Structure formats: C-alpha cells, structure tokens
Amino acid sequence: MPIDETIAGYSDLAFESAFAVYLLAFVLLIWQYAGARTKQAEARELVAAGGVASPTSAVPGRVVEAPRKPWSERLGNMAYAVLIVGVALHVGSIVLRGFATHRFPLGNMYEFVTMATAAAMVVGLVFLRGQRYRSMWVFLIVPVMVLMFLAATVLYADAAPVVPALRSYWLPIHVTIVSTGSGIFLVSGIASLLFLLRLRQPEGEEHGRIGAIARRLPDARTLDRLAYKTTIIGFPLFGAGVILGAIWAEAAWGRFWGWDPKETMSFITWVVYAAYLHARATSGWRDTRAAWINVAGFTAMLFNLFIINMVVSGLHSYAGLN
What we know:
Oligomer: single chain
Number of helices: 10
Radius of gyration: 23 Å
Shape: flat
Distance between the termini: 24 Å
Number of strands: 0
Largest sheet: none
Order of helices and strands: HHHHHHHHHH
Helix content: 55-70%
C-alpha cells in the first residue's frame, strides 16, 4: 500500500511537539529543582521557629487556612502534568507513523529510538510519580531529549516500506520487546548514576558543587532500589528479545546464532546486566560495585544501539541511513 504522506506529516509534527513539550517541562523541572528545599534546610527552619505550631492555630472557633504549597512543589506538579501531555504526543507520533506506513513502526533507527525513548518516559511516569522522585526527572529528561534530537536529525528516515528482510511478523514482536527493554534500562542507568553521585554527598552535608547538585536528590538507598526494580523488569524483557531474535534469525537466515556484531553485543549487554543482578544480591558488591556494573550495562546498550548499528557492518544493518 502507498505511504500516506499526510498522516506521516502529522506523525512528525507530533514528535516535534512532544520534544517542545518536554523542553517546557525541563524548564519547569529546573526551576523546581533549584527552588526545592532539602530536608536539612527544612529541619533548620523548624528549629529556628522553635519547633512548635503557632498558638493561634489551636484557638477554638478559629478557621485556620491550610498552608500554601511551596512554589517548588507547585512547579513540580505543573511539570508532571506537562510531561503527561508530552508522553501522549510521543506515543501518538509512533501510532501515526504506523498508520502512515501500514506497518509496525520499527523499521529503522529513527523509529527504534522513538520507541525506546517513549518507553523510558512511560516507565518514568510509572516509577517517578511521588514528590521525592520529582528531582530525578531533570536527569532523565535530558538523555531522552538528546536521543530524540539525534533521532530527528542524524537518524531521521522518511516514512517508507521496510526492506524485504524485515517484512515478517517477528518485527513487532522482537523489536518492540528489545526497544522497550532498552527504554527501561535507560531509567535504570540514570538511577545508578545518580546513586553514585548521591554517595559522594552524605546525608547532612551540603558543601561543594557536587553537594549543590546531589542534596536535592532522593537518598542513595531509594535510588539504588529504583535502579534494581527497573532492571528486574528490563532484564527478562531484553533477554526474551534476544531469544526471539535468534528464533527469527533461524527463520530468516537458517541459523539461530552466527555471532553477528549485533548478536554478540546484545549477548554481552545481557551478560553485564545479569552480572549486575548477581552483584546486587551479593554481600560486599551490592552498593557501589553493583552500581558501576549497571552503568557498564547502560554504556554497552548505548554502544549496541549506535556504534554497532551505524558503524559496524553486519546482517542487522537496517539503520535507514544513507
């Protein structure tokens, strides 16, 4: 069937609008992050006030107005609402791309990165809902926007039919699972990086440049648990994607595994994340060492996504780039 250029144009417009909305949310999040008070600052204010409520608050018959939420909290709530709109546009761009091409929209690097970043944002909406996680959005939305910018410029491909090798029912199964797992690993990797940053700023200390950045983050244990929980979800998904890819390879190329660069790097990435989960459960490794292994897995995933697809030649060279 011919490509519907009108719907394809709407898809691109939704993608660009999502990027613009994320940019607005980023500005609000930066504002909120800069104005957020730390627990230590709030404790000092309470001590300075004597640590007691105003006597007039207990007078019978007096109507006491509820305290207004601080600006930082209100900005955080606004940013979260804006993020929901951005994610809706982001997902909408994927759906419209599928309608425009009459296929599942995962046939090139542009579409893969769009799906992976959308998955990361959806996971973020699920796991980073509470007030204590709001400060993390500043650090999650930056790599998402960088990846989206690269997708819209360097990796962009016009809506078109896929190459014959990808015309298979395995495309939506295999690539959807892998891209979703990659998006989840993005959240996990950011959480581990922030965990390592938070460890350099112990609770109760707020000095130095690192302290100025880290003191508004959730505590280190919360960040570590977030990295672990998201990896627990992403690891079996990514592993299932690798296995299903091997089954597709047998149907397409007559062998399950041929140590193609993409296959090899995907397997290495999976092993690194398996090492992280093992380290996370091993005494003496579950803190800093495990976090560094998770960061290594995140790096391997990015290497597999960009370097292997764009630089190394192999059977999986379907980037859609000239």
